[in-house]
Amino acid sequence: MIVTIDGVAASGKSSVSSGVAQALGVPYVSSGLLYRAVTLLGLNAGADLADAATLLPLLSGVRLEPLASGNRVWNAGADLTADLHSTRVDAGVSTVAAIPQIRQWVDDQLRALPAPLVAEGRDMGTNVFPYAQHKFYLTASPRVRAERRAKERPEDIPAIEAALTERDRQDTTQSAPAPDARVIDTGPLTLQGVIDTILEHLR
Ligand SMILES: Nc1ncnc2c1ncn2[C@@H]1O[C@H](COP(=O)(O)OP(=O)(O)OP(=O)(O)O)[C@@H](O)[C@H]1O
Ligand SMILES: Nc1ccn([C@H]2C[C@H](O)[C@@H](COP(=O)(O)O)O2)c(=O)n1
């Protein structure tokens, strides 16, 4: 069984996927973490984030560890995970995610993983696992998402909201919900409420 949970930036995809995966006793995979890892390695190398030819050679040692409690990304034995949610990675990741060769590399990593699993991102239900049995799409207003994210970032709520809105705009191409996805507005729901809503549908 494959469950896909797509949605806009900071809509709760990782937290919800982790909760659903733990309830089901299966791993979850965060595709965004792979795009973030490419971005971090590119930034650290001083690379042009729009240049596939410079970025692709940096990825030979990158490995995603899909734990249900939280994914980790490794590069040649070094754990990159703690550095993947910085403001500078947030600002560069949409440029990297627009490169077709990088998208292909991410898709190949994900499709190599054995089912059952929960996969979260933007195009899990439309492109990577179009045959998934259960598809969900999370939304919430930019203000609600910024208020939640403000607990994790040093910037104030208006600055976070502006950055989220810009990232939504840049990610539009790959962010449409699958026609067969259930769209859930997480704004009025607690985190556990969203997890329970999905588990209810799965039953
Ligand atoms: N329904 C909810 N109610 C309250 N807080 C929530 C809810 N869903 C998620 N959160 C909180 O919002 C923040 C963002 O959630 P999370 O990181 O899971 O989103 P995401 O969609 O994976 O983000 P990104 O797109 O940046 O990777 C976290 O602090 C999380 O705990
Ligand atoms: N399937 C995916 C997953 C992610 N992206 C891009 C777009 C996001 O801005 C960025 C980071 O993802 P997040 O951590 O916000 O889930 O990666 C994508 O294009 N496709």
Fold and architecture overview:
There is one protein chain. This protein has 203 residues and is an alpha/beta fold. It has one domain: Rossmann fold, CATH 3.40.50. Helices cover 45% and strands 17% of the residues. The protein is built from nine helices and eight strands. The protein has helices spanning 13-24, 31-44, 52-55, 87-97, 100-111, 124-128, 142-149, 157-170, 191-202, and strands at 2-7, 28-30, 62-65, 72-75, 78-79, 117-121, 134-139, 182-185. The strands form two sheets. Strands 2-6-1-7-8 form a five-stranded parallel sheet. It has a three-stranded antiparallel sheet with strand order 3-4-5, covered by helices on one side. A hairpin with a 2-residue loop joins β4 and β5. α2 packs across α5 (100-111).
SSE map:
Blueprint lengths: L1 E6 L5 H12 L3 E3 H14 L7 H4 L6 E4 L6 E4 L2 E2 L7 H11 L2 H12 L5 E5 L2 H5 L5 E6 L2 H8 L7 H14 L11 E4 L5 H12 L1
Parallel strand pairs: 1-6, 1-7, 2-6, 7-8
Antiparallel strand pairs: 3-4, 4-5
Helix pairs in contact: 1-9, 2-4, 2-5, 7-8
Please give the order of strands in the largest beta sheet.
2-6-1-7-8
| Major sheet size, sense and barrel closure | 5 strands, parallel
CATH H level, superfamily name: P-loop containing nucleotide triphosphate hydrolases
Structurally, how many domains make up the residues? 1
Helix vs. strand class: alpha/beta
Unreliable stretches, pLDDT < 50, 5 or more residues? none
Shape: globular
Q: What is the share of helical residues?
A: 40-55%
The helix count comes to 9
Main location: cytoplasm
InterPro entries: Cytidylate_kin, Cytidylate_kinase_dom, P-loop_NTPase
Family: Belongs to the cytidylate kinase family. Type 1 subfamily.
Enzyme class: transferase
